[in-house]
Amino acid sequence: MSDIAKRFPENPLLKPSSLKASRADLRVACLLNPGVFRFQNKTWLIVRVAERPEQSEIAVSFPVISHTGETEIMNIPLKDADLIASDARVIRYKGVDFLTTLSHLQLFCSDDGRNFYEPEGYAKLAGKGRHETFGIEDCRVTQMGDTYWLTYTAVSENGVAVGMRSTKDWKSFQMHGIIIPPHNKDCAIFEEKINGYYYAFHRPSTMDNQNNIWLARSPDLMHWGDHKCILKTRDNAWENARVGAGAAPIKTEKGWLEIYHAANREHRYHLGAVLLDLDDPSKIIARTEEPIMEPKESYELAGFFGHVVFTNGHLVDGDRITFYYGAADELVCGAEFSMAEVFEALGV
Amino acid sequence: MSDIAKRFPENPLLKPSSLKASRADLRVACLLNPGVFRFQNKTWLIVRVAERPEQSEIAVSFPVISHTGETEIMNIPLKDADLIASDARVIRYKGVDFLTTLSHLQLFCSDDGRNFYEPEGYAKLAGKGRHETFGIEDCRVTQMGDTYWLTYTAVSENGVAVGMRSTKDWKSFQMHGIIIPPHNKDCAIFEEKINGYYYAFHRPSTMDNQNNIWLARSPDLMHWGDHKCILKTRDNAWENARVGAGAAPIKTEKGWLEIYHAANREHRYHLGAVLLDLDDPSKIIARTEEPIMEPKESYELAGFFGHVVFTNGHLVDGDRITFYYGAADELVCGAEFSMAEVFEALGV
User: Fold this and answer.
1) What percent of chain A has pLDDT over 70?
2) Is-contact B73 B63, C-beta < 8 A?
3) CA distance A117 to A332
4) Nearest chain B Cα to A95, which residue?
5) Bond before A183 cis per omega within 30 degrees
6) Hey, are the CB atoms on A206 and B183 less than 8 Å from each other?
7) If we measure between CA atoms, which residue out of A253, A165, A242, A260 comes closest to residue A205?
8) What would the pLDDT profile of B138-176 be if each residue is shown by its tens digit?
9) CA of A97: which chain B residue's CA is closest?
10) CB B198 within 8 A of CB B217
11) What 3-state class would DSSP assign to A245?
12) Alpha-carbon distance A89 to A98, whole Å?
């Protein structure tokens, strides 16, 4: 048994019924994939909230954000020959990919890291502008000084790309546009410079369906270059289709420790770990041969999209990595890794 | 008739038999898609040379560059069920896209812009490192001061991306790595800064086969951000599948003038023009409704990949835009536009 995650007995921590929909004609379908940060001595989650209208028997209905910023409902008859709706997450219609749900980001906070509530006075973050008309998703939070850098998946009819915003108070945000062009997601910025440059992981998807982790560097967090493919899928049962970074890597004495997700061709998502050289994070020191977490609890196996554990946020306290994760693309859960046990799995 | 290009009577200017293959066991299959620049009072082309081995009746054979820098020949039996070889340019084998030819870049120069020869003492530019193992292609040249910036398509098992090198003397080159990650090509850098930033066009290809022109900005040419989708395919007969920038845009009093290529779903390639705001090149002032050039000469209609005119290099002298182009993905040709006629086609 390679799963070394200690799940919270309180799981799930958040579920769709934990939150009212943003509009009367929408339902919260999923709460998932939270970014995690500390702010005002509390643990905060920035949760992806995926909404959609009640579905009828004759049409697929999904929301999009118009160019004027309004949420509009699109309806496509199920009998329309141009509709491909075999994936719960994506609709292909007349050659364009639409999402079945529209996601925004919502803050939750907690004193103990287990019981989360909606803080007053903090608005939701919604897609804005023509590169976010299908929503924003899966936010990573990188803190440097008193500034938080949010990297998230920006989805629109122009493709899936990486957007960035920054904030100091979680009430006002500066938008920095698309920092990595399509098709790209899973961008996590390192929390300190290395040899004068900022670094980030990201995950392009190519035409021939390669989904590997790349590393990029930046002088200013806004502009990125020197892109390198550093971690590829492997032809084994748990990571043969897609790999993508989780949150910002953890700086340890042994190297940069990154918890990543890996999906196989059956769309089953696992977590793995990789250790990168402190001075040159394009160099891999060690990588787990087996997943360190795999879907096994009932709330991970069945849901909006079953057999998924996906993390993009954690807090570190000594040996303990407390991480939050999306389960079955529907629920927010929590668990812990012992760093010593992760190193053991890495063989270092 | 919307084709306003005045083709050179000397066409084709360069063809595969103009050049000896780089190795005895390879054949030059195509000379195409030249970048263009002035250097030492001559007109220079940096031509893509696509080579492959003699093909047998039992296997597809193609060259790749190994990690040690050697060119190796790969052979895949035609009867292998995992082989998909329906496109002259690309082989899909076991889920990975390979190229049927391996491209490098070769310099040619000319006193009159029509008769080109191989200059002595200038080596070919070949793919280098693990992001260029399937070769380098379609180089754009942007001159600023005495430095030439080369942006080209870098192809490898890691995907299709934009690589950059720079030079002052065309003998020694500095490599700048991958500046835009996969899937991306057709990157052309503007020849001056706008409001303190460098700008470039590039062309991502998304999972749902969107192929639109994006604009990015940079403080230093190495790192790029604020990516915006600015010019999309349109549902008409000549540009409904792919659009991509040509060379660096031409600064005119009316705006930045860009000659771009457009392919339709039948893989027929045309040229169009777009005029962008001088102060904010993400704003489109005008775009040609009809192509300003389309394949019609015999050397454009039939060849390695027929029905293609593709330009990524030009020189400007007053009203005259002298441009060089790849014809049928096999030959290098030349032609001229009158700028006044291009503006007329743009309706400005």
Assistant:
1) 100
2) yes
3) 13
4) B208
5) yes
6) yes
7) A242
8) 999 999 999 999 999 999 999 999 999 999 999 999 999
9) B208
10) yes
11) strand
12) 9
CA angle A82/B290/B347 to nearest 5° reads 125
B182, B210, B229: residue with CB nearest A206: B182
Who contacts B94 (Cβ-Cβ below 8 Å, separation ≥6)?
B82
* Beta carbons within 8 Å of B120's beta carbon, 6+ residues apart: none
- Classify the C-alpha dihedral A282-A285-A291-A292 as positive or negative: negative
Q: Does B69 touch chain A (CB under 8 A)?
A: no
Q: Show the DSSP H helices in chain B as ranges.
A: 298-301, 339-346
Residue type, B231: L
The interface predicted TM-score (ipTM) is 0.96
Distance CA B219, CA B92 (A): 38
Instruction: Check pLDDT > 80 for residue B1.
Output: no
Q: Does A254 touch chain B (CB under 8 A)?
A: no
With CA atoms as reference, report the closest residue to A325 among A71, A102, A7, A1: A7
Per-residue pLDDT tens digits for A32-90: 999 999 999 999 999 999 999 999 899 999 999 987 888 999 999 999 999 998 888 89
- Note whether B180 contacts A: Cβ–Cβ < 8 A: yes
User: What is the structure's pLDDT at B50?
Assistant: 97
For CA atoms A128, A131, A137, A141, give the dihedral sign.
negative
Pairwise CA distance, residues B171 & B264, whole Å: 39
Residue B134 in contact with partner chain A when CB distance is under 8 A? no
Q: For residue B207, what pLDDT is reported?
A: 85
